[in-house]
Amino acid sequence: MTNWKELIDTQGIVEEDVKDQLEEPAKYHVFLLNDDYTPMDFVVDVLCNFFNKSEEQATDIMLTIHYKGKGLCGTYTAEIAETKVENVVQYALDNQHPLKCVMEKA
Question: Quick one: average pLDDT of 45-74?
């Protein structure tokens, strides 16, 4: 015969163990890289449309990319970061620009 009190206590312990094992998903930084061919206004457009930056924020990031070689666009979970990178790269290719977008573990 099953001891219900024992079963309930065991389930409580299992639930606590599972809660203790849960972790925040890994985060990834998404960067745009500088090149000598992509127009600055196209980079600003990408930052506004794909990363929801204001015109002012996008301009600041674009200048960082221009002067420092790369600029942080945002930090996301792996799946979202991968999707943003793929979408930006495809958009750049569709518009005949060599703009590169990469992700790095945060």
Answer: 98
Determine contact, residues 76/30, Cβ cutoff 8 Å.
yes
What is the spatial distance between Cα 48 and Cα 19, in angstroms, rounded to a whole number? Answer: 38
β-strands 100-105, 27-33 pairing: antiparallel
**Tokens (6 digits) for 84:** 């943003």
User: Among 98, 34, 91, 36, which Cα is nearest to 64's?
Assistant: 34
User: Residue with structure tokens 């389930």?
Assistant: 11
DSSP 81-98: HHHHHHHHHHHHHHTT--
Which residues is 27 bridged to in the sheet? 77
CA distances from 40 to 19, 77, 102, 105 (A): 47, 27, 18, 26
pTM, entire model: 0.80
> Which residue has tokens 């998903």?
25
Kind plus residue range of the DSSP H or E element containing 39:
none
At 80, give phi and psi (nearest 5°).
-70, -40
pLDDT on residue 18: 62
